[in-house]
Amino acid sequence: MLRSRMFWLAAVLLTTLASPSFAGVDAPQWDKVNNGFFSGKQLEDGPFIHITAPKRAASGAQVPFAFSIDYPSTRDDYIKNVTLVVPENPVPLTAVFHFTPDSGKVDIATRIRLEVDDYVHVVAETSDGRYFRNAVPIKASGGCGGSVGGDASEARKTAGQMKLAAVEPVQAGKPAQARLMIRHPMYTGLQRDLMTQGFRPAYYIKNLDIRFNDKPVLQADTYIGISEDPNFKFYFVPDKSGKLTVSAEDNEGKRYQHETSVTVQ
Amino acid sequence: MRFARIGTVLLGLAITVGAAQAAPLPVQERAPGVYVHQGSHRDFDDADYDGDIANIGFVVGEQAVAVIDTGGSYDIGLALKQAVEKATSLPIRYVINTHVHPDHILGNAAFVGDGVRFVGHAQLAAALYESQDTYLRDAPARADGKKNTIVLPTIKVSGQTTLDLGGRRLLLQSWPSAHTTTDLTVLDEQTQTLWTGDLLFTERTPSVDGDVKGWLKAMDTLEHKKRVSHLIPGHGSSPQDMAAAWGAQRHYLTALLTDIRKGIDAGQDMSEVMRHAAAHEKNKWQRFDVINPRNVNLLFPKMEWE
User: Fold this and answer.
1) Fewer CB in 10 Å around end: N or C, chain A?
2) Whether the predicted pLDDT of A140 surpasses 70
3) How far is residue A84's CA from residue A78's CA, in Å, rounded to a whole number?
4) The pLDDT of residue B144
């Protein structure tokens, strides 16, 4: 017992010494996330929430982040909402994804921002009102407040351009993967600007509404923790050939639309 | 074993701190009046990162000195200043920054004083201002305390300009987006020594923070400068065979671009491309496993829209 305690103490000491630049936290801040975003709810451990992310992100501004959830996707039992929280980010709430049985499965890949080393939390709400959580640590720096790069007026001109495609072959009644790319600078409001001696105002996509033949398959509320030029891989279930449509709105109220034809085999 | 490691780390810290405070930075006179301190190949993410990874130095004229890059912390800058004072009693008139990266500019603060002017690319002030929070937070703490600060250039170079050190001229050239958006090269006309900043890496994996196509274009021009007799790269040793050094870097950057493009065209995601892009270059470069994926991470999201 004592030996094992000593071992842990040594391990903690070593970790601390070996990473003096670790600016975030050493353990998932379950309570902070629970109290801050799910007050009064009971969050259960969700080992079936699988998270794919680098242990150390090469760039804090574009951290590849994916989650998939092993859970049914039927009319009366499915995952309704998934919330991403990065507690140490200036804006911890990163995105809330809304699914339907027509999503087919909960499996999203995107890119997020991390200002400092942190645990990224994924909280899933089921259609019967239970909450499950998981989290992974990622080392990263400067994703929210770092340099903007590029030409701001050019970024405004191209904002809202989209690319959208389903991965072929697409089969009726089976989950098909689609990929959405949106051009948008996603200014965080925390990026400095020498011209004004202040901060560049936040300018970001705040929601997405993706439908197949007008049935919602994925909706999302997005915040500045989603990286510049947002990028999403997601699933939907086509019953027949049709149109996949995206409507996105930014925080200045501008709406962008895009669609693509999907042919089932 | 474990405790021994703790001891080593602590001892390492103590030595670094002591050295940075007390002694002038070791420099070599590469050509008459041209002094260079060669940084190590540590990385920002290393536990023992001390800000001393870039090649920095100074050129001594007949009336004044120009410092070229100042290192990655106040302490490194101070040690470089002491090295200048050891080499000459002439005053420092200019501090030139070759680009925005923290390992080249955080020592600026040690040079602030009467008669010292800071010189950089026309875009440098804005870029430094944008990045200051991250740079300062991630700066090596060590003995610096709160002494690390950002010093912006007041002489802004677009195109070319010449600085006079008295009987010795430095030709400064700013570049369109290449390694960064703020690259500046410095040619000492007297000895034909070209300080490339990070437009040239030797040994250490080149890192990308600007536009690779622009960088390759800048290299075309730099490589064909006829009279250059010494190259001071931003990182790594000065090459004996200058053409080979440019060629090796061109090879890596071209492989990186080609492999990312192939990955995007094949519908691969960024993490997958990070694993294979330019992989056959791995044995030619130091810190490849850290820097190469970072390069992919920066380039991939932009190249998806090309």
Assistant:
1) N
2) yes
3) 18
4) 58
Instruction: Mark yes or no for CB contact A59/B125 under 8 Å.
Output: no
Locate A53 and state its tokens.
Answer: 């992310």
Of A13, A21, A183, the CB nearest to B138: A21
Quote the domain boundaries for residue B124.
Answer: 22-240
Could B130 and A20 be called an inter-chain contact, meaning their C-beta atoms sit closer than 8 Å? no
* Nearest beta carbon to residue B305 from set A19, A183, A193: A183
B219 found inside a domain: yes
Residue window 21-50, chain A: list those with CB within 8 Å of chain B.
21, 23
pLDDT at B141: 66
In a domain, B157, yes or no: yes
A146 shares contact with chain B (CB less than 8 Å): yes
pLDDT (tens digit per residue) in A108-119: 999 999 999 999
Name the pLDDT band for B47 (thresholds 50, 70, 90).
Answer: confident
Total domains in chain B come to 1
The C-alpha of A197 sits at a distance from chain B's nearest C-alpha, in angstroms, of: 9
Q: CB of B294 within 8 Å of any CB in chain A?
A: yes
Spatial distance between the Cα atoms of A22 and A84, rounded to a whole number of angstroms: 21
Helix (H, G, I), strand (E, B) or coil at B149: coil
Residue-wise pLDDT for B222-249, tens only, equals: 999 889 999 999 999 999 999 999 999 9
Alpha-carbon distance of B249 to B134, in angstroms, equals 28
Tokens matching residue A47: 């080992």
Q: Is the pLDDT of residue B88 over 60?
A: yes
Q: What is the mean pLDDT of residues A91-98?
A: 98
Return mean pLDDT, chain B: 91
Interface A–B counts its CB contacts (< 8 A) at: 92
Taking the CA of residue A223 as centre, how many other CA atoms within 13 Å lie in the half-sphere pointing to its CB?
18
Rounded CA gap, B160 and A161, in Å?
37
Per-residue tokens: A151: 């030409």
The reply to whether residue B129 touches residue A193, judged by beta carbons under 8 angstroms, is yes
Q: What is the pLDDT of residues B178-219, one digit of tens each?
A: 999 999 999 999 999 999 999 999 999 999 999 999 999 999
Query: Which of B73, B137, B273, B296 is the best residue to mutate to test the A interface, defined by the most A CB atoms within 10 Å of its own CB?
Result: B137
Residue of B nearest to A192 (CA): B130
Q: Find, in chain B, the residue whose alpha carbon is nearest to that of A151.
A: B181
**Predicted ipTM of the assembly:** 0.85
Which residue is listed with tokens 């601390």?
Answer: A16
CB–CB contact B9 A18 (8 Å): yes
Contact B271/A167, CB-based, under 8 Å?
Answer: no
- Longest Cα–Cα distance of chain B, Å, equals 61
User: What domains lie within chain A, and their CATH numbers?
Assistant: 22-262 (2.60.40.10)
B291 in any annotated domain: no
Angle at A239 between CA A238 and CA A242, to 5 degrees: 65
* A:158-217 residues touching chain B, CB 8 A cutoff: 167, 181, 183, 191-195
Are the C-beta atoms of A207 and A221 separated by less than 8 Å? Answer: yes
At residue B44, the pLDDT reads 82
Most B-contacting residue of A6, A13, A19, A21 (CB-CB within 10 A), to test interface: A21
Q: Please provide the distance, in angstroms rounded to a whole number, between the alpha carbons at the two ends of chain A.
A: 62
CB-closest option in A142, A193, A229 to B301: A229
In a domain, B144, yes or no: yes
